[in-house]
Amino acid sequence: MTDTEASSTKAGSRNAGIREVARQAGVSIATVSRVFNNAEVVNSETRERIVALASSLGYEPSALGRNLVRGRSYLIGLIVPNVSFPLYGAMIHGIEDVLGRHGMSVLLASSHDAAATEVRAAQNILRHAVDGGIVINSIVGDALPTQRQLGWVHVTPEPAGLPCRVELDNEEGGRLAALELLRTGRQHFAYVGAKGRESADRERGFALTLRKMGFDYRRFEGDYSEESGMRASAELLAGPLDGVFAAGDLMAAGVLRALHARGIKIPDQVAVVGFDDAAIAPLLYPRLTSIRQPAYAMGASAAELSLNLMSGRHNAPIIFPPELVARESTGPPQASF
Amino acid sequence: MTDTEASSTKAGSRNAGIREVARQAGVSIATVSRVFNNAEVVNSETRERIVALASSLGYEPSALGRNLVRGRSYLIGLIVPNVSFPLYGAMIHGIEDVLGRHGMSVLLASSHDAAATEVRAAQNILRHAVDGGIVINSIVGDALPTQRQLGWVHVTPEPAGLPCRVELDNEEGGRLAALELLRTGRQHFAYVGAKGRESADRERGFALTLRKMGFDYRRFEGDYSEESGMRASAELLAGPLDGVFAAGDLMAAGVLRALHARGIKIPDQVAVVGFDDAAIAPLLYPRLTSIRQPAYAMGASAAELSLNLMSGRHNAPIIFPPELVARESTGPPQASF
DNA sequence: TTGTAGGCGTTATCAT
DNA sequence: ATGATAACGCCTACAA
């Protein structure tokens, strides 16, 4: 393998490097480099000549070489529990937009809600010498492997100890749900929750708001699945019920289905509020009122936090307010032709 | 900034490099390198000493340096129209699994169904010297920018000319839908489609199968949105109707909703079949029968194709068969308690 | 089994 | 405005 020969003569097998361009242009490699970095500083005539030559030779600076000398990869690692979940999709969108604006790209890995997989994803990401990292709903939290001075930005409500964090004001979400049910004149409430701090926070906001108005509520602990929502309905219907707040849209879907199966009219007899405002919410029957997480904005903020972290700056956790999206399940059906 | 001093003495600010490890271990950097590559070939005693030292120094080989000398980035670029779409999520999952098994990672970028964004995403990906690339439902097709001998693997039904491709047998999907409607004794059919080759293929399979049994059908052209599905129902109900095949689950959702609004019983009076078997299908009311794309397997195949392409091997396009997932919208409701 | 040394493709400093 | 040249961190013949 006469490697030197091949690389200098036979164009195509390996693209022309900076040396070859410099040689053919009759300048030093430094000048070529400058053309692609500080274009202004080089004589406009030689610059154009080099640009033309480079493009005819199919040359462009190698990211590999550039990364090495700059000590950066321009990559941000991103760990997501599950790419399919629409809420995460919106977050990723926000992350991509901000990062792209700063010339950085997203290295993706999924944790599939398993601690071992999450750690493996982190190691995998670290192997690529990323400049930063973002984890959505981390399971292992600050036990995530790291390297150099890389800091992970967390998008999660827990644990509270994590320094660099973006989270949703879940308690406020619970409050909004309660207000919506109160607004539509309900009196017999129920909360369909799940384990974990997210649900607990949502319930607290819900409970506080109801109590302030002199109401109590019953509760059911599910697991965010549609099926657990159906179980919840079955159990809660043993008593008086006209207002349900479910901690997730999937559970709310189950509630709707079970009420439906019993011929109960929504929202006339029972109103239902979900959480997340996932893509399914407006497709359910009836269309589901839900508490929306500003997922895009949260992703964008996480990206900015990560960018700041790279530059040594450190920011306080950012807490986002949720927003009520009122649909048919708590009010009169929208006009449908 | 006495950079050289800092890097050689003050551990921490910049992690130890291979030189430092070699120096402290009293060996050459070549030996240290071998420990992390051809571990077997180095004396087990020195190896353990080096491993211990490296870990105490927090040393691990720099991906930057390694990539440069090997001329590879171990990155595969992935362009997705929209991360949120659950079908794509499953594909990404398949891609990640296969790639991870080969020590490669996913560099993600979204096209948001816009040609300009897709091209920009490709350029962005190319800047990172990826070893390969995969595009899901590309808009610009073979006009995607490329470099070196990098070849994009397409997951898409069109254009047919693309050499490296994974696609679904849409015609077979249409056939399955027709068979299911025939099986449940329907006689007055309708197809709710959209523009593009995917829909055309699905319709062909649907039409051929019906005609073979002596049936005809009416058609409506929507745009994959729920709203267009509702319009379809409104129009189609002008004539006799008891079996609808919609080219997408969202349109099917619209069909269901419109039928519902008119008090039409599903599946008793009208049966509905969707396409994709997206996450929403089992959540609709009633649960939607749909034609499933083997998204995970398709993603996995795309990844394998890309891996092969890197090694110079070239494969023929792979065509996947869809699968019927029967639910309530075409048959008796499942037992619900 | 281990060391030597060249090179991967670029950037950036210091002269000129 | 341009050229030499020293890194960047690592891998890998080749030699010992």
TrEMBL record, chains A, B:
Keyword Transcription among record annotations: yes
Listed Pfam families: LacI, Peripla_BP_3
Organism from which the protein derives: Deinococcus ruber
The protein, known as: LacI family transcriptional regulator
Domain of life: Bacteria
Gene3D superfamilies: 3.40.50.2300, lambda repressor-like DNA-binding domains
Presence of the UniProt keyword Kinase in the record: no
PROSITE patterns documented for this protein: HTH_LACI_2
GO molecular function: DNA-binding transcription factor activity; transcription cis-regulatory region binding
Domain named HTH lacI-type: residues: 16-70
Keywords: DNA-binding, Transcription, Transcription regulation
